[in-house]
Write a structure and sequence with these properties.
alpha+beta; 4-stranded antiparallel β-sheet
């Protein structure tokens, strides 16, 4: 039996959800039905848990403790090509603080409670008991790996695992992005204006700002849908100006959207409408 498969089965027997990784520390595209997000994977992955497709899915959603799945036909050839084993930390109630270089390790030793550590190629994994949301680049050389991500299995590590501290949870709390001036392409117009008065457009922009500001979850999707609605109603007649678009971008940025996300959502909405 392949050494990586043996490791995976040992971990799975202990209740640790595992998956194979290929060269480059990336998962196999083992589920053709889900390639290019054909299964709607992003919507399926808003909460921890496996993908709803019928096969072992991609990335963290492939992690499983089922020995029949791990040794089944879908992964028969995969294990012969595997370069490493990964696991889903959040799936077993753990959080990994991935420290990518010596300076990050030095920071952790100053700032975080001691816990179980595992040496990596360039730094260390600090493993805490307790799950949380994951995030990359929370500070220089520091990633948080817990729910909805995978981490390489590099051995059991040393030291006693301690409870997830608030200092780690606080690392992923984001302050709203600063509102930055933006320049976005506004359709040139040329169609017939359907606005009865200028107040019609103003009311529409104000309602759009309010819709974005009121969002409590799914902010990115709300921003996109709002941009789509505004462009659909006001984007073809020439009344929509750069200042109107800037107001919408500002509302989105106060909810934590980056300027790039705003620009992408605006461009995608224009494309969807054929503008």
């Amino acid at each position: 039996m392949n050494a990586h498969l043996r490791t995976a089965l040992t971990l799975a027997a202990r209740g640790v959800p595992v998956l194979p990784l290929r060269v480059g520390k990336v998962p196999f595209a083992n589920c053709p039905a889900c390639r290019k997000n054909a299964c709607g994977g992003r919507s399926n992955m808003k909460t921890p848990g496996p993908c709803t497709c019928p096969r072992p899915c991609h990335a963290w959603a492939a992690a499983t403790t089922d020995p029949d799945t791990l040794t089944g036909p879908a992964w028969t050839s995969v294990w012969t090509q595997a370069a490493a084993v990964a696991y889903h930390p959040g799936g077993v109630g753990l959080t990994v603080v991935d420290l990518d270089h010596a300076d990050a390790v030095a920071w952790a030793r100053r700032a975080l409670p001691a816990t179980r550590t595992v040496s990596t190629t360039r730094g260390e994994h600090w493993i805490y008991r307790g799950a949380m949301g994951s995030a990359n680049d929370v500070r220089d050389g520091v990633d948080i790996k817990s729910t909805m991500v995978y981490a390489r299995w590099l051995g059991p590590g040393t030291g006693t695992m301690t409870a997830l501290p608030d200092t780690v949870r606080a690392l992923v709390v984001k302050n709203p992005s600063p509102v930055r001036p933006v320049t976005v392409p506004v359709p040139a117009g040329g169609g017939v204006c359907r606005h009865r008065t200028p107040a019609y457009l103003e009311r529409g922009i104000a309602m759009a700002e309010q819709r974005i500001t009121a969002a409590t979850s799914g902010v990115h999707a709300t921003v996109y849908r709002t941009f789509l609605a505004v462009l659909s109603a006001h984007g073809r007649c020439g009344c929509l100006t750069d200042s109107h678009a800037a107001r919408l971008f500002a509302a989105a940025q106060t909810k934590g959207e980056s300027p790039r996300h705003c620009t992408d959502a605006w461009s995608n909405a224009r494309t969807a409408l054929g503008m």
